[in-house]
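Progress report, Aim 2. The chain analyzed during this reporting quarter is listed below.
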Amino acid sequence: MFKRENFLGDFWGGTAAMLVALPAAIAFGVTIYAVIGGHYGAYGAVAGILGVAAMGIVASLMGGTERLISAPSAPAAAVLAAFALQTINQGIGADLVFVMLMIVALLAGLFQITFGVIGLGKLIKYMPFPVVSGYLSGVGLYIFASQAPIFLGLPQGTHFWDSFQITSAWQWQSIAVGLITIVTMLYADRVFRAIPAVITALVVGIGAYFAFGLIDPTLLQANNSFVIGELGGHEGINFDQMFTGRFETMLYIGWEEMALLFFPALTLAALLSIDTLKTCVILDSMTHSFHNSNKELIAQGSGNIVSALIGGMPGSGTMGATMVNISSGGKTHLSGFIEGVMAVVAFLVLATFIAWIPVAALAGILIVIGLRMIDRHSLKLLKSRQTALDFFIIAAVAVTALSVSLIAAAGVGLILAVVLYIAQQIGASVVYRHLDGTEARSKIVRCKEEENLLRTNGIDFSVYELHGSLFFGTANQLYTILQEDLQHKKYIIMDMKRVQTVDLTAAHILLQIKDILHDREGYLLLCRLPHKLPSGDDLENYFNHVGLLRHLSPIKVFDDLDDAIEWAEDKIIKEGLLEQKGEELLDLSNFDLFKGRKEETLEEIRSLAELRTYKKGELIYSEGDGNGEIFLIRRGSVRIMLPYPGRKSVHLSTLGQNNFFGEFSFLEGAPHYTDTIAGSDTDLYCISREAYDLFSKHHKKASLHFMLSLAAVLAERLRLTRSELGAEYDV
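Predicted structure tokens for the chain:
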């Protein structure tokens, strides 16, 4: 799995990443376990180091994203510290809380693996930005609030607000070391660009501490309150007893206690997953790569499980260490593996040194990390009414995280995001365009008498082009928009080509609309139902399933919008008692193209014309057939279709009696460019260009009149086409 081609780059990248991740991990670990009290605060440093080792080694071995560095992170520290404080305040013993932290981390790893197995990786990274921003801001505020008392030198457990009321207890030594660390953390990059700021800040903070020790000799005493202290006190940590004791204590945890751990673990898993996948997305954009979200979650979950079992704290893919890894030459999974191995080496070599790390220096580092997590740019959202609600979600989540708990903030954020989405959907109209029947026209070319009737009675139908989501939040909006038309119209056409989702409430509203139209002997016409919604469902199958498309129901389904409009037009024409033509065959003298011609001229044309008959659905000609002929419709109708290779043909127009088609082939003397199908039983005159040329030699005036009549009809058709295109594209 590991590649040797870039071993040196991966070695230095992983080593540099470890140097960045380790100080922060130690600080995170101390933050969590110091809440428990006793020797657990010192153990927190060990937990942080073990977390770096386990996450780096296991996530890389499991085939996580190349170049990604995994280590204990701020969200893990904030969630677990809040959980530890909550359980301690409930009177649960320190040893039991210690074990519960392990179980929460273990469950979080299992949840992450489950997310990856069932394919949630692609969804988690699309968590609403206001929720993520608000939560991370809340985590940043929580870290700042939890570290402020430590920065001031107050006893562990002092509340943030209380720390400002007991100024007499502030320790100048702690404040001085913390301030120097913070200033170094903020400006180190400008001076020591080759060294990560967190390392420089930690070294400078330790140096400042020992410098102040020359003023206050108590600072140089071992295990004083200003340093982490010897791991486990004067006798050190008995790792065997601590590790085996955790599993023995688990026997005292019942199902009620386990239930209390479920939601914190789920919250932790979600946050660590979001933090990791967010880093992966940025990493992809920088390296022009593509990560596997689900595989990464499985790798991260495995790392967190191993970390929990060996006593480490959980973590995620971290941005800072990952950037250092890339800039130092890391290119493969090996860099992450080396990061974990070097963390083990650092633990073995620096165990004694860790005892002298000032807690104020760690607090200063965490304060800067926490403040940088706060999304200050979100204040700009207040400048616009459209984004003010997004800011409200960010602020609500952050305030809940700080005032109630991080776990409650996660729930508040998701609920508000759902409410905001529904509000936005309800606020947006589901009607993309509405056309009255006097404006909408099918592609059938009708006679003047039929056109006049449609102009008069076209108000009997309306066309609604829908888009977006038809669900419980927008279904009533659609019903309200249709209310006026439902009182007067007999035919409502709904074009659903742009519809994304439909739920049962929307289907029920369509049933109501259908029933109202049925009472007035009307119809609901649905067209262009998507056969594959974004969810993968077939909308027509769904409507069948919910009972909308029952047999003999006053509802019709059409593949094309034009077919639905044509059906409504035919009903209006029939109901207008228009005399139905096409019962008798038309003679040449009845066609507008030949009106006013002498009988002997018409007789000569009849001798040139070929009579043809086609059954409904029969192909008259295909694209590429013929060599210049025009067809005149004596009876019936034809459908002109434009073929496309590999996809459905486009319906251009439908022509009825007293119309003609094939005119371009006739004028150019070339093959036809469309397919033409008989829409009903049809009788035609067919005149070839060759026969017409012979006729024109002896009847120049008649042939000129025919061409002028042909040009006039074509110009009228072009005008109608321009009007249709203008309506389609709103020009």
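The chain has three domains: 7-418, 428-575, 588-729. The longest helix spans residues 255-287. These observations will guide the mutagenesis work planned for the next reporting period.
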